[in-house]
Amino acid sequence: MRLVGFAVLLGAVGASIDCVIREEGNCDTAGTLALAGTVVTLGSVIYDIATVRGAVRRQNRTGRAPSLRFAPTYSRSRRAAGLSVGIRF
Questions:
Q1: Which domain holds residue 15?
Q2: Which of 12, 22, 66, 88 fits as disulfide partner to 33, beta carbons 3.0 to 4.6 Å?
Q3: Considering its fold, how many domains does the chain have in total?
C-alpha cells in the first residue's frame, strides 16, 4: 500500500511540474493526487501500527519452533576443521 501511495505522490509531482513549469494541465490534479497519495500512505502506516500486536504474536508463535543448525567451524588452537551444532527450542 505504501508503494501505491508513493507512486501517487510521484504522480502529483509530475502533475505539478506540468502546472508550474510548463503552464499546462490542471493545477487541481496535482493537489488531488497529493492528497490521495498522502491518505493512502498514512492509512497504511496507521493500519500497520494498529495491527502490530497481532503480527508480533503470530511471529512469536511461528518463530519458536524448534530448530537444528549445522555450521562448519575452524579451531585455531587445534588447527582443525569441525562441525558446530546448534539446537534452538
A1: 1-89
A2: 12
A3: 1
